[in-house]
Amino acid sequence: xxxxxxxxxxxxxxxxxxxxxxxxxxxxxxxxxxxxxxxxxxxxxxxxxxxxxxxxxxxxxxxxxxxxxxxxxxxxxxxxxxxxxxxxxxxxxxxxxxxxxxxxxxxxxxxxxxxxxxxxxxxxxxxxxxxxxxxxxxxxxxxxxxxxxxxxxxxxxxxxxxxxxxxxxxxxxxxxxxxxxxxxxxxxxxxxxxxxxxxxxxxxxxxxxxxxxxxxxxxxxxxxxxxxxxxxxxxxxxxxxxxxxxxxxxxxxxxxxxxxxxxxxxxxxxxxxxxxxxxxxxxxxxxxxxxxxxxxxxxxxxxxxxxxxxxxxxxxxxxxxxx
Length: 323
Description:
323 residues; alpha/beta; eight-stranded parallel barrel; two-stranded antiparallel ribbon; globular
């Protein structure tokens, strides 16, 4: 069955002396109670690796990841570990001194990180490895599809040499939006995104460059974007699926500057399309500006449910569009 759930940002980005967070058990209880089954945990490797010394990870941080897994397993939730920031690459503020696509040191470190996880969790159930969050567009920082394919095949081999049955996930390229049919033969799950169009999902997001002519308040549906245009956007994903690939949407959501009625109309089409395709999904995130709880989009109506202020209309969409 497809897996449905949320991203949890407990170890998402290391800034200064910021420590990783423990698992939020109250949120996990709520998620499991309402029949969701999947938790994706994006990780910044710098929390447990110091000065690129990959051979000597910080055991206290790895032990905290163990608690994430145990908390999920106790509640019947599948946990997907994702390296969001890797040696030599991150979609957010990529490092300038090391490049995953061309530097052997970065590639060796990246492979070792996953080999260590494979050894640590060998045979563990309800766990998958999402190797790298959102590889970039071809041409950015020496990235090519061929280099990406070589790195991914190497790491898949490192993991399977230790734990042959481990479920492995590969994000699409171009920030996760484009399918990777060249890796269809690897027996991996392919992870897509639900952020198209950015003019709806990331309207006025502070970390994005303002478009020429300034921000235009989003409208959906429109002549440019509607359900059939979204269907066309996922056409290559469907064709890749026909090669035997399982597809999952590892991230989707709408930033809280988009009017809520626009966000809901767009999310209705996305979620109904994925239900038709029988694709699982993970909302980015549970609580926060893209989430289902206290997101802050203009016009949202909240309802208290088990102590959480949820966007009732969005919550119903999430519930109704599971297979």
